[in-house]
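Task: sequence design from structure.
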């Protein structure tokens, strides 16, 4: 089959690769109908890498699949089923897994990072990593399932009240999924802070009430103006380096959810401010038993992510999509392994 293989630091190759086979009785083999490029792939292929992957593997972890073969123990899926998929495979037996925190598994397998992923024509994964979806969910919505799963993990932690005002720091794909889902969850104003003009248009399209340009506007002043001087109820940092700004923008007793990840970032934080204003700070890592919720969300038709698709390419043109992501002129790049 054809695949995009991670060859060495910063490099990949479109090449022939052996078709994966079932290894365990609960494995499912699926045909990749469509895949999409994630920020993670960009970090994996940076030099020096932002995320260190294993050379020699098939890249990619976002896809929609069609089941073509099932192991003897598989009970929920049959040949021909359409599936969405979570590439992070927890071990099930470590202390984190056994206390209900499998998203924080200490031995997490990660397809497309450490093991073969989905920028290929076929992939194999355990049944429990997949949820069947109806065939009438448009591919242009279903393709967003994996990142939505991560964002749904965060939404589950936040107790959004109808009318709550929310600030989303960063209007990249993740920030825009949050924007869309928070509006669907009954948020009042969703304010998005984003420097890029390109992304601003999409933020409004996905439901932002106001996009703030933090380089030319005073973020905190705009927030105060938009919220009767109170600050927002909830701040989401989709970037990973903006906790200090989040603390300034949130109301007394408000919540901050940290989602973006930058392991090198260091900031000066006023800890006393968190105490005296009674703030709640959440960290969230990937989805947590939310893939089924994603399937329900997609099936409901209450949200539309398809306007965020900026590129549709053959898998062989992965490099074109990667460059567009690097330059910040792409949001969702959909790849067709069969074109
Ligand atoms: Zn992803
Ligand atoms: Zn585990």
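Answer:
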């Amino acid at each position: 089959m054809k695949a995009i293989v991670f060859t060495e630091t910063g490099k990949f190759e479109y090449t022939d690769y052996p078709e994966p086979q079932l290894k365990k009785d609960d494995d499912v083999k699926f045909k990749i109908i469509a895949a999409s490029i994630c920020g993670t792939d960009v970090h994996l292929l940076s030099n020096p890498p932002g995320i260190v992957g294993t050379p020699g593997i098939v890249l990619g972890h976002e896809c929609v699949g069609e089941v073509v073969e099932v192991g003897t123990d598989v009970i929920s899926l049959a040949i021909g089923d359409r599936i969405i998929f979570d590439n992070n495979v927890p071990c099930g037996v470590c202390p984190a897994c056994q206390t209900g925190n499998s998203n924080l598994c200490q031995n997490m397998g990660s397809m497309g990072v450490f093991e073969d992923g989905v920028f290929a024509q076929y992939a194999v994964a355990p049944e429990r990593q997949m949820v069947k979806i109806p065939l009438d969910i448009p591919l242009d919505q279903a393709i967003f399932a994996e990142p939505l799963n991560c964002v749904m993990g965060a939404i589950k932690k936040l107790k959004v009240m109808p009318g709550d005002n929310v600030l989303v720091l960063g209007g990249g794909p993740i920030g825009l999924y949050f924007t869309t889902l928070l509006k669907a969850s009954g948020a009042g104003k969703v304010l998005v802070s984003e420097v890029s003009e390109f992304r601003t248009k999409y933020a409004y399209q996905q439901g932002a009430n106001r996009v703030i340009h933090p380089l030319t506007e005073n973020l905190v002043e705009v927030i105060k103006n938009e919220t009767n001087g109170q600050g927002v109820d909830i701040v989401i940092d989709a970037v990973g380096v903006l906790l200090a700004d989040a603390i300034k923008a949130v109301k007394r007793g408000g919540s901050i959810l940290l989602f973006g990840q930058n392991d090198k970032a260091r900031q000066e934080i006023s800890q006393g401010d968190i105490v005296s204003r009674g703030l709640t700070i959440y960290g969230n890592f990937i989805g947590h038993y939310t893939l089924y919720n994603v399937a329900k969300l997609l099936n409901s038709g209450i949200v539309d992510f398809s306007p965020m698709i900026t590129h549709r390419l053959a898998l062989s043109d992965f490099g074109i999509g990667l460059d567009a992501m690097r330059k910040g002129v792409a949001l969702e790049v959909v790849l067709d392994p069969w074109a």
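The CA atoms of residues 138 and 298 lie 9 Å apart.
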